[in-house]
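Hello,

Our lab assistant flagged a job as stuck in the queue for most of the afternoon. It eventually completed. Since we weren't sure the result was trustworthy after the delay, we are filing this so someone can double-check. Below is the sequence as submitted and the structure that was eventually returned. Let us know if re-running is recommended.
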Amino acid sequence: MKKVCGLALIVVTTILLFGCSSTDSKKTSEINEYPTSILDLVPTSSIEATETTQKTPDVIPTDVPTPTPVPYPEVGDIIKLGKYEQDFDFDNGKEEIEWIIIAKDETEALVLSRYVLFYGEFQSGLSAKPWENSAMRERLSIFYEQSLSSVEKEVVSRSSITATKNPRYNVSPGKDTIDDVFLLSIDEVNEYLVSEEIRKCVPTEYAKEYCWSAYTSDISMLNGKATCWWWLRTPGKKDTSIATVSDDGSVNYEGAGKGNYSGGVRPAMRILLDAYIEMTYSPATPVPEATQILEPTSTPEMTPSPIDGLEIGDVIRFGYYEQDNNESNGKEPIEWTIIAKEDNKVLMISKYALDCLPYDNSSSLSVSTWQTCSLRKWLNGTFLDSSFSEEEKEIIVKTKVTADRNPSYGSFTTSGSDTNDKVFLLSSKEATKYFSSDYERICAGTPYCLAKGAYLVNGGVWWWLRTPGYDSSRASGVSEKGFIDDSGYDVDRTDNVIRPAMWISLG
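-- returned structure --
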């Protein structure tokens, strides 16, 4: 990370909120009370008059108001920026993300999420990829896109992130990067978080309760809550490990394996102070909700809904498929979530699981790949022909679908050859890239899908990916809790479900 000139590194442990033991500090007590505004934490500024040799005018204008100074956040303060699911109550929407200012200079502040927001692997399997090529870096990029509004993104300073070596082990850290959101390095943790106590961190209720891999320690506590360990970006003892901060707040220089799903994630970023103050104290035009529903046409034979101006996160209705399990009232419009946008086309995946089908029902199951499986034939035959009008099929783009290897068990399987398809399943790599968390990957099935025998756990279903599983008779998928199941299930299993994906042209 680039050197911050004149950095105010006065990190007073009684100011930082990580469970400081002192009860005498006014700021600490205020932080632990979860303030709703940065104004609760910043003392009122005093303005000292400066001497002047000019003569005081006889008449003081009364129509010129005295400007009120705006308080700037300080090291140890908490600010709110962006939204992410945290309280494990999906009905009330996402909660505001709290960030701790851990360092600042005259123009920028370095902020770190107050809580572990989610869990996940740094990189699949035993990969030696450093931060620059990691799945975690991609995931944080998606987190940034989905968690901050366009107005809030103007506050974030895109930063040069230095690839620093582990001070104890000679492992290559890779190359420097340019990122909006990132993980801290060992050097930054030691410089800005100066004690083990203030490095301790607890997960949100969502991270703790909903992520299957959630880990907390009943030995190390912070404000009466169990703490957890969290990822850094610095390499560990080996090129297959990454340094971490342990649940007791100590730096683990040896690190954890990159494929460990139990690692907590605390995003960090730099914010522009002037832009933050302007946004906070100058009410902006309300930002519309990310999801919009574009109404379908009245019958499948009419032209599709307008698609100009689609953005990631939008939901559109396109095509028809039986969903309410009442065939007498006809098919229902299919809802699709936009998960990527490139040039003049968008990638979308069905919002709900549409059907319950085996990945491959052919007679020979010794080796099954996306290239040869029966599900590929069904999606590009029966499903495509029966669900879309001729006009709709015209804007579905035939796409090169890569035969990605299993990131954990690639040496045990064959992935076949690349194909060209209009409709396909996501790969394990794409499911990691286009969804920022396990929560974002959780999917519900339609009544029709459930009636056909879909395996249901707490409202979630297990959906197929096209990537091979543990061996050539299995295929990967996404579990009911949203984590990617690289081991997968036998391809002839009949209670797993499908979420078709496709690219459509914007014109």
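-- support follow-up --
The delay was a queue issue, not a problem with the job. The result is valid. The CA atoms of residues 324 and 447 lie 5 Å apart. Residues 1-62, 283-306 have pLDDT under 50 and may be disordered.
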